[in-house]
Amino acid sequence: MEGFQAVVVERDGDGQQAATLRRLTESDLMAGEVTVRISHSSVNYKDGLAVTGKLPVVRRWPMVPGIDLAGEVESSRDRRFVAGDQVILNGWGVGEVHLGGWAERARLPAGWLMRRPGDLTASDCMAIGTAGFTAMLCLRAIERAGLVPADGPVVVTGATGGVGSLAVMLLARAGWRVVAVTGKAAEAAFLVSLGAAEVIDRAELAAPGKPLVRPRWVAGVDCVGGQTLVNVLAATVPEGVITACGNVGGMELPASVAPFILRGVSLVGINSVDVAMARRRAVWERLAHSVDRQHLAALTTHVPLAGAIAAAEAIVAGTVRGRIVVDVA
Predict the structure, then answer these.
(1) Cis peptide before 62 (omega within 30 of 0)
(2) Which among 129, 191, 213, 227 has most CB atoms closer than 10 A?
(3) Could you give the count of Cα atoms lying within 13 Å of 213 in the half-sphere of its Cβ?
(4) Measuring CA to CA, which residue among 197, 206, 137 is closest to residue 166?
């Protein structure tokens, strides 16, 4: 196998890290039964953390970031896949403990891969990526609690981000009245175009407040965490459900038990990394039939592999709207 290009994050003896685009060889590939020629990946907040080192998500050095990937099977030692199969992957620790998708090739365990669902293209799958997968897990958790759109509105925090923008779109298409929360007033029209019925300033939920306030929503997708999540819980109606899937506002939860014991509010954590394959396939099949392709295109930008590092820095800085697809090939 010839050498191939990859973005590599390395750390020196002083703990300083740097990301560069360079060539790797077959000997750099990790253990796995399937070798994939990658055509597309994406830029997620976790990838931004891996590149910038803002949080210690990388647990193997050196590392190729990219927690999502799509491509074609080049060779396989597992009977579930043959050369030419079109496959995708999200999660499983790729980009954290196993070399990820920001490379022209990867060698992976067969159990982590699934065939491309529905009529989605590789680019579509990466525009959805972990962000859309997470958003659908949130929607399914809300539905699993027995809630329906007639029960009241749903709030989405961090609404212009990857998970947030896809959550707005998916919830609206499922019939929910979506209240989108953002600190970017100029993006209000964008959120309305995705289906938001109301857009509010994140400042309303940013400062410490009362343990309980006037109920405003029956469900929520929180992509922020920290004080914002605390205030979302305080404004949830009795027996409401809030899903938590992000930490851009901090890892702490300085909350009161009041929403839980006085209103019976449920806080449901969403883990998109270690989802069992049967459930994973079901989520992706629903995504293939639920995503509006025009909206997906409108919220997606594309960068070449060489542009992934700058895009990762931008996503951590909070200057990215929607999704970024990395055109690896």
Answers:
(1) yes
(2) 129
(3) 13
(4) 137
Nearest-angstrom CA–CA distance, 14 and 71: 36
Burial class (CB in 10 A: 0-12, 13-18, 19+), 53: middle
Q: What is the pLDDT of residue 86?
A: 98
Q: Please, are residues 96 and 60 in contact by the beta-carbon 8 Å criterion?
A: yes
Torsion of CA 40, 314, 245, 20, to 10 degrees: 50
Provide the sign of the torsion angle of the four alpha carbons 126, 315, 267, 221, taken in this order: negative
Q: CA 127 to CA 165: how far, in whole Å? A: 11
SS (H, E, C) the chain: CCCEEEEEEEECCCCCEEEEEEEECHHHCCCCCEEEEEEEEEECHHHHHHHHCCCCCCCCCCECCCCEEEEEEEEECCCCCCCCCEEEEECCCECCCECCCCECEEEECHHHCEECCCCCCHHHHHHHHHHHHHHHHHHHHHHHCCCCHHHCCEEECCCCCHHHHHHHHHHHHCCCCEEEEECCHHHHHHHHHHCCCEEEEHHHHCCCCCCCCCCCEEEEEECCCHHHHHHHHHCEEEEEEEEECCCCCCCCCCCCCHHHHHCCCEEEECCCCCCCHHHHHHHHHHHHHHCCHHHHHHCEEEEEHHHHHHHHHHHHHCCCCCEEEEECC
Structure tokens at 17: 């890290």
Provide the pLDDT for residue 125.
Answer: 98
Name residue 298's amino acid. Answer: A
Q: Which residues of the chain have pLDDT under 70?
A: 1
**Beta-bridge partners for 236:** 217
Tokens of 21: 């685009």
Q: Say if residues 232 and 180 touch (Cβ distance below 8 Å).
A: no
Question: pLDDT at position 2, please?
Answer: 72
* Cα four-point dihedral sign 289, 89, 92, 324: negative
